[in-house]
């Protein structure tokens, strides 16, 4: 059972809505499955953390997919999450790593690139989708998700994301926050928030110091102002299955399946999100062919 979780909160009498997450074990699971190198781990982990918190804003069976594509060496970072705290992710090029940047931090910007966009597709049920996109303005990802909310969802927000990686490539700490200004918030409240965020210690440092998600929000917003509404577990979870990939093979059509039987005497599918492998025998593929006729 994971120790990771997200808290949902209000602050300043409902003028501010806030989410904070601890995602160390969740990011570690993804790092292990994809064998990402440190810079890739930081980029993937930041994206996963943001996506998990965005998922926590959904309801019921709703889910969302986030694609970060800054045209950098890492390629695309794709993450999806649901309202139950389940999140998964992968990157096109997991073995991406660079020397530390001038601030002595993992050079996420260099890996992600700055010539692309963040795209968010929300599946809100009943075959209804919401999609939004915004240009990548920084490549560090926190600022990019902040910009996404301001431009695509017209919600003034501050997004902070942090991932620390150990020398042996394991994840030392991961987490973040999304703080949003609600309609009708007083100018005074907004000024206080801006001041607090500009003066705060980097998120990854706070998590490394052992601050919980509640502690993170108390640190930024002030303990007296924060009202925690809900706490929910977060974990790496992939919904792939033998059945789902069989359906995908079915979609390839008769000629392609016949080719698999004739040349490969079966098929193997690998899930991008979790690395699980599924093998299909000639017999299974023949049954599939019969169902197409």
TrEMBL record:
GO terms for biological process: protein refolding. Disulfide bonds join 238-240, 271-274. Pfam families: HSP33 (PF01430). Its main location: cytoplasm. Gene3D superfamilies: Hsp33 domain (3.55.30.10), HSP33 redox switch-like (3.90.1280.10). Under oxidizing conditions two disulfide bonds are formed involving the reactive cysteines. Under reducing conditions zinc is bound to the reactive cysteines and the protein is inactive. Transmembrane segments: none annotated. One of its GO terms (molecular function) is unfolded protein binding. Keywords: Chaperone, Cytoplasm, Disulfide bond, Redox-active center, Stress response, Zinc. Redox regulated molecular chaperone. Protects both thermally unfolding and oxidatively damaged proteins from irreversible aggregation. Plays an important role in the bacterial defense system toward oxidative stress. This is 33 kDa chaperonin.
């Amino acid at each position: 059972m994971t120790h990771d979780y997200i808290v949902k909160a209000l602050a300043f009498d409902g003028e501010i809505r806030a989410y904070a997450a601890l995602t160390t074990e969740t990011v570690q699971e993804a790092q292990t499955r994809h064998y990402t190198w440190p810079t890739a781990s930081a980029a993937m982990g930041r994206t996963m953390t943001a996506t998990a918190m965005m998922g926590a804003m959904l309801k019921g069976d709703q889910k969302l997919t986030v694609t970060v594509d800054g045209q950098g060496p890492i390629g695309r970072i794709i993450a999806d999450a649901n309202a139950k705290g389940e999140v998964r992710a992968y990157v096109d090029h997991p073995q991406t790593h660079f020397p530390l940047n001038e601030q002595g931090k993992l050079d996420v910007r260099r890996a992600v690139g700055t010539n692309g966009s963040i795209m968010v597709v929300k599946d809100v049920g009943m075959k209804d989708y919401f999609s939004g996109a915004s240009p990548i303005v920084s490549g560090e990802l926190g600022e990019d998700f902040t910009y996404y909310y301001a431009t695509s969802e017209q919600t003034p927000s501050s997004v902070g994301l942090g991932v620390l990686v150990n020398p042996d490539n394991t994840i030392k700490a991961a987490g973040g926050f999304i703080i949003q200004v609600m309609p009708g918030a007083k100018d005074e409240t907004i000024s206080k928030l801006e001041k607090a965020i500009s003066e705060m210690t980097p998120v990854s440092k706070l998590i490394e110091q052992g601050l919980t998600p509640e502690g993170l929000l108390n640190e930024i917003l002030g303990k007296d102002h924060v009202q925690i509404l809900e706490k929910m577990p977060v974990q790496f979870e992939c919904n792939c299955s033998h059945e789902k990939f069989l359906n995908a093979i079915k979609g390839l059509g008769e000629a392609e399946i016949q080719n698999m039987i004739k040349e490969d005497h079966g098929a193997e599918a690998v899930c991008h999100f979790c690395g699980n492998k599924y093998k299909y025998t000639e017999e299974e593929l023949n049954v599939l062919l019969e169902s197409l006729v």
